[in-house]
Amino acid sequence: MKYYKIKHSIDPKVVGGYIQASGSLKRGNIDNIGLRSKITIPVDPPILVLDKKSKPTTLLSSWIDYSVFLVVKDYFVQFLENFTIPDYQYWNIEVYHKKELIPIYQLFHISNPSDSDYIDYRKSDFYIIRRWDDTYTPKPVSIENHKQYLDLQNKLNDGNDFLEIEYKKLVMDFSTATEDIIRFVDVSLNFGYYISERLKNAIEKERFTGMEIVEIETLDDRIEVIY
Q1: Going along the chain, which residue ranges are E strands?
Q2: What is the C-alpha to C-alpha distance for residues 1 and 34, in angstroms, rounded to an integer?
Q3: Does residue 119 sit within a domain?
Q4: Is residue 156's pLDDT more than 80?
Q5: In a domain, 150, yes or no
């Protein structure tokens, strides 16, 4: 089954202005939670404020971390329930537009990311770079699995050398995938939500707004996708 990345639209004819909700009346407590697991603490959602030029689309762009949450209208979450989706959570979130409350938005969260399931670390080519340093010679590194990737990245983060993992080739293997929506959080440039071709076609048929659906191969020519 083919997969696509779902992104926020930046088309002014669709969204009015990007980012649509750059401000808030309340920050809430969602920062730094739910990155790699189900959220078990009581969630206090932020209160978002749409910019005057922005349009209240089905999917909203905001300052909220889109590798963790989607801000969508409640009927979109109900729509997703017709498809194969992994464990998920959602909370009502207040969104104001021109001082009027739009009471139908929800904060949607896939509990567990799929990096370990669908990234083939053995077939990918990784190396270590130093941020903001073009003189640093990249160092190849062998990574066997997701745990090893995280352990190495955490070790690099603990240092003061601004080192991080980059890839020369990233292999994403969806040959065993069955879910219609999944998310990734750990490989740079590719975090966020992905959808199946089945869900893509249904979204386009329903004409939901505020989203751009792109083929994974067009995101980065270093990505190899296996179906």
Answers
A1: 3-8, 23-26, 47-50, 59-60, 70-73, 88-92, 94-97, 100-102, 105-110, 125-130, 139-141, 163-173, 181-184, 192-196, 211-215, 223-226
A2: 27
A3: no
A4: yes
A5: no
Can you give the residue range of the structural domain that contains 203? 3-113+194-217
Question: Is residue 199 one of the residues assigned to a domain?
Answer: yes
Three-state DSSP state, 139: strand
| Domain count within the chain | 1
The pLDDT tens digits for 104-127 are: 999 999 999 999 999 999 999 999
Residue 189: pLDDT over 80: no
Average pLDDT over residues 71-90: 98
CA-CA distance, 69 to 33, in Å (whole number)?
A: 10
Contact 15, 210 (CB under 8 A): yes
Predicted TM-score of the model (pTM): 0.94
